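Case study.
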Amino acid sequence: MILLELFWSFFQIGLFSIGGGYAAMPLIQNQVVDIHPWLTMTQFADIMTIAEMTPGPIAINAATFVGIRVGGIPGALVATFGCILPSCIIVMTLAYIYFRFRNLSVVQGVLAGLRPAVIAMIASAGISLVILSFYGERTLPNDLTTIQWIPVVIFAVGFVVLRIWKTNPIYIMAGAGAAGILLYSLF
Amino acid sequence: MKEKSKKFVKLFLSTFQLSACTFGGGFVIIPLMRKKFVEELHWIEEQEMLDFTAIAQSSPGAIAVNASILVGYRVAGFPGALLTVLGTVLPPLLIISVISLFYAAFRDNVFVNMAMTGMLAGVAAVICDVVITMGKGIVKQKRVLPLAVLLLSFVAVRFLDVNIILVILICGVIGALDTILRGRKAKGEEK
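After joint prediction, the assembly is written out as follows.
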């Protein structure tokens, strides 16, 4: 039963994450934190962090991680399979249409229409991560002064470096990890 | 026959290698694939790779998986697509499996905890950067509709707790209608 639930959740994540990259992030959060009690927000943030540090698409990383925790190795396999099945079916179909008619304008129109919505959703999930990072909680506390300054500093420096030098995120992650060890050891 | 199985092995190993080296996911794998399959192996034409990129981006799911399906299918048909998908999925599957086995012990370590707390701030910065870069693209279009879609979906998801799949479906329909209407308008102007 749990395997079926895993399959269905990750099938939906695979089916509705359009636009690549971080598009899957809000859907994963929705399925594994909000709808199912599979991960806490901290564990979700951990898997996003691990996904950033390890090769492979975010959705596959999350599927494996959640699958193993919830249903062992079979869970990981089922979740990953569910995640890629929509891709397999749809990409094959699109490829067929494409080579037949050489026209994808409506498909691309759908994608163009989705892009702003996808950005909005990534922004929303991103804000949740910022709040978790700054306050250690999922939602903003009543007392905003309880903010932890070490993550704020790491965030600010990382953000400025990314904006100015367009650094590869992997270096930001490594730097942020090292800064975390250094600052928390010192203060 | 031997030639064919050699090609299959090469196809699998190439995608496995590419997937194992693609950090951060998303679009990164496309230039690597182009280098491998267009420049090195000459299995795919330059123009085809561009088309594959468009299809991979327009389809649901991870770009890396989508692109590898197309490459596999083009090089060796349906079995080829199965092989390339397997090659793309296996590295993250194996790596994350190993990590999640050690996750509990790993997470309780004081230094790991410090590093993870720092890296969470790092991820947050990376995502904010991505959102701003992507958002700029929308602002540059100077059209009201995409901006309105962006703002309204943000409010709907962030503050009104609207189901995100519903938002995706509605915005997809809006995008399709917008393309069709604009296509008609452009045609009308041509006449």
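Observations recorded in class. The two ends of chain B are 56 Å apart (CA to CA). The first helix of chain B runs from residue 2 to 21. We will return to this complex in the next lecture.
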